Amino acid sequence: MRSFVSFPGELNLNLTRSSGVLLHPTSLPGGRLGEEAYRFVDWLAEAGQAWWQVLPIGPPDAVGSPYASPSAFAGWRGLLAEPKAPVAVDEVEAFVAAHPPWSGDWAAFAGRGALADQVRFQREWLALRSHAAARGVRLIGDVPLYVAPGGADHRAHPELFQTGFVAGVPPDYFSRTGQRWGNPLYDWAAMRATGYRWWIERFRRTFELVDAARVDHFRGFVAYWAVPERSRTARPGAWRRGPGRDLFDAVSAALGPLPLIAEDLGVITPAVERLRDELGLPGMHVLHFEPRVDRHREHAVVYTGTHDSDTTVGWAGDREAHWPLIELALSSPARLAIVPVQDVLGLGSEARMNVPGRGGGNWRWRLRRGQLTTEHAARLREVSGRHGRVA
After folding, report:
1. What's 237's domain CATH number?
2. Which residues are catalytic?
3. What is the pLDDT of residues 86-103, one digit of tens each?
4. Position 234 in a domain
5. 296 is a domain residue
6. Any idea what DSSP says for residue 15?
7. Residue 180 belongs to what domain range?
8. Which helix (H) or strand (E) is 75 found in, with range?
9. Alpha carbon of 105 to those of 58, 80, 156, 320: distances in Å?
10. 262-281 pLDDT, tens per residue?
11. Is the overall model pTM greater than 0.90, yes or no?
């Protein structure tokens, strides 16, 4: 069911002209998988959409962010439609046997019942993925660059992380003082010495669950912002060199071509663009930041906005702004167009998913049952079809 073609020696997601919708599972009515997730897949198929993009599906941090998960591998128990479904001992043993690089680390961190929850998650998620494939809908996941401090991966493999510095980004559009994320930074020399084994297993797990994945903060593989651990803001940080192509070549040698999207937003240098293009990865265009579609690349993904930006109605200050911008996105030369569900519904800033740099009040927005209608599906299908995005 995948809509990409692999080329020897390249990590290439060769997209057909298509479109999809961005909606995190926590934003489904009820905030879980199950019936509402299946309904959403059916709505996507009705709307002529080929892709469902989600945010990371691992356990979130204390404020609900899925980008600082205590595990780069585990699925979140909070998404389960049936968190008390029976799990047999042999099912747990089979899961551990299939996932030896990380299942023990997660069990040691999360405690009793953690592996049974992973069996439940595997059941529910793969059943949903199978249903989506049957309806012609593929899943785009999200790979955060970093993991949570003190999480399962950090505790189990301290030798793979630096000390004295933490992750962040310099001052930018979102924050005058930058963003001090606080995640542990990788010791790339140590990672290289292991043949990037941890990253190989991370991508292996990713493509067990989704058809393609967006790599968050892709520029961090070229150079990353290292913030002194004692600093309260990201301003005193400095750029340090990342692993570059070396990492992706190692992962590709182990797993084959990787269907990835490079999140190439923010402070982007020619070196970042060069790595993206050498690997054959599509990057991103966001209309809130660059509305000139005549400047868009064909091998790219265009968005009206992202989970980190305001909704289109909130951004434009106009209750009727969403459909013109959706049409503009769908008209882009970029082969894949993704529209946040909030824009399909024409919602304002009250439906914003995340405000970068704000500690609380994020990741809470949720659909109401029945809020997405057949009328919404028909209009999205018509506009998508008019721009050659419906098979």
Report:
1. 3.20.20.80
2. 216, 263, 308
3. 999 999 999 999 999 999
4. yes
5. yes
6. P
7. 18-386
8. none
9. 15, 21, 6, 50
10. 999 877 899 999 999 999 99
11. yes
